[in-house]
Specification:
heterodimer, A: alpha+beta, Alpha-Beta Plaits, 2 domains, eight-stranded mixed sheet, two-stranded antiparallel ribbon, 5 helices, B: alpha/beta, Rossmann fold, Transcription Regulator spoIIAA, 3 domains, 22 helices, 34% helix
Chain lengths: 234, 620
């Protein structure tokens, strides 16, 4: 629709809950934005565009997700012209979404993304050289400082990542080590779950570069996001 | 690549989305139900391969056949190559994840000479014997096509077949022949290659020809080894271009690729006949697509993709007879949907205010024109019928519309070029700057910027300059310096192509079969990604030439005699040698020729008939 007409029309906020799994977990944040933009265009749901030189659907993601990490708990916000028909939007988005980017829910948001405080991850480590008692070793690693070189906006920095770990639970399931970790995820404090993997591998004395396909490796899935009170954010 | 099995490896390489596949629009079939599987290889990175329109068309055309499954393969970047060797992972196809050695046909598109070393790398990573004569009954048939197949003699040792010309009808025919021979039990590798060469049109099987060389190093004989094999292989074209297959649900990459947008192929061929341009000759005759077809395809693609840019592709878009009507129809809905229209091949002599307005609707970027040469004398010699007034008029229009940046493309080392012509390049750039300040209503907030780029002229087969000598690397550098030294204005930027890369390109472009040994040696020396500056090594090429005792200057530094047997004489593109020689003579006299619309020059492409401009001219 023409620009002048658009300016006077009201818009409604819409929140979309989705998952990012399989081969799509290897696309970057920028790739995801492009993929979602095109999906919104195809869905033809009257999405609001940014003004300016390079107009594109206005799109805000709740949290960044690092490349190689799956998630069953992602959110993005858009605006649509007029009243939001969430049922229709859900149906249209499901029609157009890539199969590895399933749309879970569409609703009118009640809270702002800045209320997000934690993200929870499930980390699976499988390795031929996993020692006996691996779950205890990793579960107890936060009893002492866990100092890693962390990349921050101002460069690399040695830092004790324990202050970013809200909880850490470990158990063995058929030769594989399962870690459930709740990590800081607010704008000032954010811990990439890859650091937990690095710390665990170090605690278990597994090499950093041992990545024989099929035999050794790890998977990370983001399983939930929470507010400061530990309540599920939606 | 299976992301579950190779997750750790994918996390350890740059841009893993290059390898994971699973894109929207990819074609998945039941492999037990198909009878002919193609691994369609693009011998460069995913980002470059996914941008290629020809591959999109052929992928769709092959997959339209219910019993044929065509998959995509790209060259893994060096970090992934290391991982693959370390863990013994073979090169696999994107869709199924199966190793390419398991396929019936492994195809390579040869878009530029500098990707040849990647072809041999991919065969090695795919565990397919490098040489065609080493392959057994269980190995795939290796086929090449694309622009470089018009003279792929340097790669003749490694290919079983070359597909000459346009493939959207030819490749399904080849699949049908394969399926038929497999079904009736007549298939053997040898029998299939023979049948492809003798029963179908447009397939060149290099092993069915014998080549001998004279004492001067030139070819003395080039002939079929069997009387049933054609002496010349005729290129294929799609006669009815308006109704030809065109994919409107392309595979959509998730990760950023070079060209990621709706590409409309407006017409094939070019009316101009610039004397350095191979595309302008080999794609003859000119064939248009109707405005109605193009508009329908554009809308379908928009609905299927959600792309925000439509690019009108062809060799010179403003030569399209209905360019005004087409752009009028498109902007009826593109602007309102925030879709930008881009016309990447504008000619300065037909650029208008109307066209400028249409491409400035949404997200308009800088403008590029290609005068190719700095003086009118040389532009006449190369038959680039653009006058200085046209160029200044075109930039005037652009400046009027608020643009302040213009790019100008040139070539240096063109036949008959003098220092005066070379110096004409910075002079023209200065005139463009002057034009900016003469333009009323220019954007006064920003100073103008003119970027001039010079490519090094490479004589190409099937052009009037196919007999010409290429100037030496040192002379290229001298002329580049001459330009750089004569730019005193900081508002003019100068870029130039590497003369060493252009030299190797020239060797391969007009090379013969003896260069196969050089290519094998390059593989042994670890060459890949020669099209990438950071991986190109002149020392390595020189070492390879030395190792096999070939002097590369033989291919570049001599004028060929008119009656010399050229390695590509085995191919018939319709355009005759007589016409090319006539054009070469005209070039030496700085005499331009008429374009196809002004009058027929009798190039010979008319033999291809169809709904072409040639027929219209003949009837006129």
């Amino acid at each position: 629709m023409p620009n002048d007409e658009r300016e006077v029309r009201m818009t409604s906020p819409v929140r979309v809950a989705f998952s990012k799994v399989g081969s799509l977990s290897f696309i970057s944040h920028l790739d995801l934005m492009r993929t979602v933009s095109r999906m919104l265009v195809r869905a033809d749901i009257g999405v609001y565009y940014t003004e300016g030189f390079n107009p594109h659907p206005k799109l805000t993601f709740a949290l960044p997700l690092s490349v190689g990490t799956e998630s069953v708990s992602e959110l993005f916000d858009i605006k649509v012209y007029g009243e939001a028909d969430t049922m229709l939007i859900l149906e249209r988005l499901r029609r157009e979404a890539p199969k590895e980017l399933p749309i879970r829910e569409v609703y009118v948001p009640e809270r702002k993304f800045r209320d997000i405080a934690y993200a929870e991850y499930e980390i699976v480590i499988h390795h031929r050289l996993l020692p006996d008692g691996a779950a205890e070793i990793v579960g107890n690693m936060t009893n002492e400082p866990v100092v890693l070189t962390k990349r921050t906006k101002s460069g690399e920095q040695e830092c004790d990542i324990r202050e970013f770990i809200a909880s850490l639970g470990c158990e063995m399931r058929d030769e594989e080590l399962f870690i459930k970790a709740r990590l800081a995820a607010d704008p000032e404090h954010y811990l990439n779950p890859e650091y937990v993997v690095t710390a665990a591998r170090r605690a278990l004395s597994l090499g950093d570069d041992d990545i024989a396909p099929g035999a050794d490796g790890y998977f990370i899935t983001r399983t939930g996001i929470f507010d400061a009170d530990g309540k599920e954010f939606r | 690549m299976d992301y579950k099995k190779y997750g750790s490896i994918l996390r350890s390489v740059s841009k893993p989305a290059r390898y994971t596949g699973g894109e929207r629009g990819e074609v998945i079939k039941d492999k037990s139900a198909v009878k002919c599987r193609w691994a369609f290889c693009f011998p460069d990175t995913y980002e470059i391969g996914m941008s290629n329109l020809g591959v999109r068309i052929l992928y769709g055309a092959l997959n339209r056949e219910p019993d044929v499954w065509c998959e995509r393969v790209y060259t893994p970047w060096v970090d992934m190559q290391e991982r693959m060797r370390e863990y013994n992972i073979p090169l696999t196809a994107h869709e199924s994840g199966d190793a390419i050695s398991e396929f019936d046909i492994v195809a390579f598109t040869l878009q530029y000479e500098m990707c040849f070393t990647n072809v041999l790398l991919m065969l090695e990573l795919g565990n397919i014997p490098e040489r065609a004569d080493e392959r057994g009954e269980d190995d795939p048939i290796v086929i090449g096509g694309g622009p470089c197949a018009y003279n792929a003699e340097p790669m003749a040792d490694f290919f079983d077949i070359f597909s000459i010309g346009e493939g959207e009808e030819a490749l399904p025919e080849l699949s049908r022949l394969y399926i038929k021979m497999k079904a009736d039990g007549t298939y053997s590798r040898r029998a299939f290659l023979f049948a492809a060469a003798t029963e179908l049109e447009g397939f060149y099987v290099p092993s069915l020809y014998r080549v001998a060389y004279g004492e001067d190093g030139a070819i003395s004989r080039f002939e079929p080894i069997d009387a049933r094999v054609p002496v010349k292989v005729k290129k294929r074209i799609v006669e009815d271009f308006d109704h030809a297959y065109f994919p409107t649900s392309p595979v959509m990459p998730y990760t950023e690729v070079v060209h990621d947008r709706i590409m409309l192929e407006v017409f094939r061929g070019c009316i101009r006949g610039c004397r350095f341009c191979q595309a302008g000759m080999v794609y003859r005759p000119v064939r248009d697509r109707s405005v109605e077809t193009l508009c329908r395809q554009a809308e379908e693609m928009y609905r299927n993709t959600g792309y925000d840019e439509i690019s009108l592709t062809s060799l010179a878009i403003d030569d399209y007879t209905c360019v005004d009507r087409l752009t009028d129809e498109l902007i009826k809905w593109t602007n309102d949907n925030n879709i930008s229209l881009s016309l990447p091949s504008l000619r300065a002599d037909s650029f208008t205010r109307e066209l400028m307005a249409k491409i400035s609707g949404v997200r308009s970027s800088g403008l590029t024109f290609a005068p190719e040469a700095g003086t009118q004398r040389l532009r006449d010699a190369i038959n680039k019928n653009v006058r200085e007034e046209d160029i200044l008029n075109a930039v005037h229009i652009a400046f009027e519309a608020g643009k302040s940046q213009v790019k100008l493309y040139f070539m240096i080392g063109l036949p008959t070029e003098t220092d005066e012509d070379v110096l004409g390049i910075p002079k023209l750039a200065s005139k463009v700057i002057d034009e900016y300040y003469k333009t009323e209503g220019r954007n006064k907030k920003r100073p103008p910027q003119v970027t001039i780029s010079t490519a090094c002229f490479i004589p190409k087969p099937f052009t009037p300059f196919q007999w010409a000598e290429q100037i030496s690397k040192e002379e290229f550098v001298r002329r580049q310096r001459l330009i750089a030294d004569n730019i005193k204005d900081r508002r003019i930027k100068y870029n130039f192509h590497d003369s060493e890369v252009s030299f190797i390109e020239a060797v391969l472009a007009r090379g013969d079969r003896r260069l196969g040994a050089v290519m094998s040696e390059m593989r042994r020396l670890g060459a890949c990604f020669d099209a990438w500056d950071e991986h190109f090594s002149m020392e390595r090429w020189q070492a390879a030439f030395d190792a096999v005792g070939i002097d590369p200057d033989f291919y570049t530094r001599r004028e060929r005699a008119a009656d010399e047997i050229l390695p590509w004489d085995v191919i018939d593109i319709g355009v005759t040698k007589k016409f090319l020689l006539r054009e070469y003579a005209a070039a030496k006299e700085s005499r331009p020729s008429k374009n196809c619309r002004e009058g027929c020059s009798g190039c010979g492409a008319v033999v291809y008939g169809g709904e072409t401009l040639c027929r219209m001219m003949r009837e006129k």
